[in-house]
Specification:
Blueprint lengths: L5 H7 L2 H4 L32 H4 L3 E3 L2 E3 L14 E4 L9 E4 L4 E7 L2 E6 L2 E2 L5 E12 L7 H6 L11 E4 L2 E4 L10 E7 L2 E10 L8 E3 L3 E4 H9 L6 E4 L6 E2 L6
Parallel strand pairs: 4-15, 7-13, 8-16, 12-14
Antiparallel strand pairs: 1-2, 3-6, 4-5, 5-6, 8-11, 8-15, 9-10, 11-12
C-alpha cells in the first residue's frame, strides 16, 4: 500500500529542480473514477454569477478579505455554474490541473467550476485524497526546504514568521499565503502535506505556480469551504508531468 505525500515528491525530484521549487499534495489516477476528462468538462451552458457581489470585499471574523481585482485574473477562471458530465457523487471535488479548474459536483449534470493555481514542474500530482480537516484563517508553516532556501523567512529576519505551537510559521491573516481558508488533504491516516486553500496572490490563479497545493481566490475558497464537509473525496485528474501513486486505500 503506497502512501504519497508532498515529501515523497520532493525526495524524488532532481537536486536542481528541488533547489528552485517552493512548497505545498498526492496519488494515482484510477480509470474506475469515471471523472470527466478535461476536454469533456463542459464549457457550454455556463451561468455566471454577479461577480461584483461574490468577489466584493468581505468582513470575516477579525479580518477583511479585499475585493478581487479582475484585471489580475482571466475571466475564464472566475466562478461559474457549468454543465459537467461525471459519475462522481454530488459533493465530490474534481480538480483538473491541466486546465486549472476545480469542480464541485452538484448533481443533475452540473457543477460549480472555480479557477485554481496548481503545482509547477516537479510538483504535479494525480489521484485521490480526502479532506481530513478544515481551518479558517489557518497558520502557515513553511516547509523545511523553503526555510533553507529562503533565509528571509526565518524568525528574527521576518517579523511575521515566529515560533508557533507546531513550529516556525506565520499566524493566520490577510498576509498569510494560505489565505482565508484551508482544507487539508490526507490519504488514509497519512497527511499528504497538500492543501486546497485561499491565496493573497490572485494573479497566480490559472497558472502552475505552487508546489502542489491547490490555490483559490479567497472568496472562492470561502464558498467551497462552507459547502464541503470533512471526509469529502477529492479527485485530481491526470495532467502532463504529474506524479501518480496507488490511492486505492483512500
Amino acid at each position: 500500500m503506497t502512501f504519497f505525500t508532498r515529501r515523497t515528491i520532493i525526495a524524488g525530484a532532481s537536486a536542481s529542480a528541488a533547489a528552485t521549487l517552493a512548497g505545498c499534495v498526492g496519488t494515482n489516477p484510477n480509470p474506475s473514477l469515471n471523472a470527466a476528462a478535461p476536454e469533456n468538462s463542459a464549457m457550454a451552458d455556463a451561468v455566471e454569477p454577479q461577480y461584483s457581489s461574490i468577489y466584493g470585499e468581505v468582513k470575516d471574523a477579525a479580518f477583511t478579505v479585499p475585493a478581487v481585482d479582475y484585471s489580475q485574473v482571466d475571466r475564464a477562471f472566475l466562478r461559474k455554474s457549468v454543465s459537467y458530465d461525471t459519475k462522481e457523487a454530488p459533493g465530490t471535488i474534481v480538480i483538473d490541473p491541466a486546465n486549472h479548474f476545480l469542480y464541485h459536483v452538484e448533481g443533475g449534470g452540473r457543477a460549480t467550476r472555480y479557477g485554481v493555481g496548481v503545482g509547477r514542474d516537479g510538483f504535479r500530482w494525480a489521484g485521490e485524497a480526502r479532506i481530513k480537516s478544515k481551518q479558517e484563517w489557518p497558520d502557515w508553516y513553511p516547509p523545511a526546504e523553503m526555510l533553507e532556501r529562503r533565509p528571509d523567512l526565518n524568525p528574527g529576519v521576518n517579523k511575521q514568521v515566529v515560533e508557533l505551537q507546531s513550529g516556525v510559521g506565520m499566524h493566520g491573516g490577510p498576509a498569510n499565503p494560505l489565505g482565508a481558508r484551508a482544507m487539508y488533504l490526507w490519504q488514509g491516516n497519512k497527511d499528504t502535506y497538500f492543501r486546497i486553500h485561499g491565496t493573497n496572490e490572485p494573479f497566480t490563479i490559472g497558472t502552475s505556480h505552487s508546489s502542489g497545493c491547490i490555490r483559490m481566490i479567497n472568496q472562492d475558497a470561502m464558498d467551497l469551504y462552507q459547502k464541503t464537509p470533512v471526509g469529502t473525496r477529492v479527485v485530481v485528474l491526470p495532467s502532463p508531468g504529474a506524479v501518480a501513486a496507488n490511492a486505492s486505500h483512500v
